[in-house]
């Protein structure tokens, strides 16, 4: 497990496994967001298995599959809703943590300065510079 905090209430991680979920709960997380489509991962890491393990560990589980290079407004809205509904810190995961960082930045457009939404993930090696225009456009929509 390689948890990378973006804020005190949101962290990202590369792919986790069902056996990681009790430790994730013990680390204080309340919600886990799965940002990987089932089609790109083995059966034992797909949504059904991960949901079952997360709920058994006492975590809220949200599936929001994000296709790399094809993030939709539905993805952004779902991520924002899951973050807003969380009763404690959120851990979102995908293959590397990159998509979970991008969809977080887009979901927080207008809530935090664009520069911060780009710089915070950059501290973990995620390059969101190419999303500046999208973040600014979402922020302008209010």
Automatic annotation (TrEMBL):
Domain Beta-lactamase hydrolase-like protein phosphatase-like: 2-110
Classification via InterPro entries: BLH_phosphatase-like, Prot-tyrosine_phosphatase-like
Database matches in Gene3D superfamilies: Protein tyrosine phosphatase superfamily (3.90.190.10)
Superkingdom of origin: Bacteria
GO MF terms, alphabetically ordered: hydrolase activity
Alphabetized Pfam families for the sequence: BLH_phosphatase (PF04273)
Name of the protein: Uncharacterized protein (TIGR01244 family)
Species annotation: Cereibacter ovatus
């Amino acid at each position: 497990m390689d948890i990378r905090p973006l804020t005190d209430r949101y962290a990202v991680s590369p792919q986790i496994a069902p056996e990681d979920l009790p430790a994730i709960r013990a680390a204080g997380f309340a919600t886990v967001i799965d940002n990987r489509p089932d089609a790109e991962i083995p059966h034992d890491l797909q949504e059904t298995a991960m949901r079952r393990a997360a709920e058994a560990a006492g975590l809220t589980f949200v599936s929001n599959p994000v296709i790399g290079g094809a993030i939709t407004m539905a993805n952004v809205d779902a991520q924002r809703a899951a973050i807003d509904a969380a009763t404690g810190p959120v851990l979102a995961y995908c293959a590397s943590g990159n998509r979970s960082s991008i969809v977080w930045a887009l979901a927080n457009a207008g809530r935090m300065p664009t520069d911060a939404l780009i710089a915070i993930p950059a501290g973990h090696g995620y390059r969101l510079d190419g999303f500046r225009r999208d973040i600014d456009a979402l922020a302008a929509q209010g």
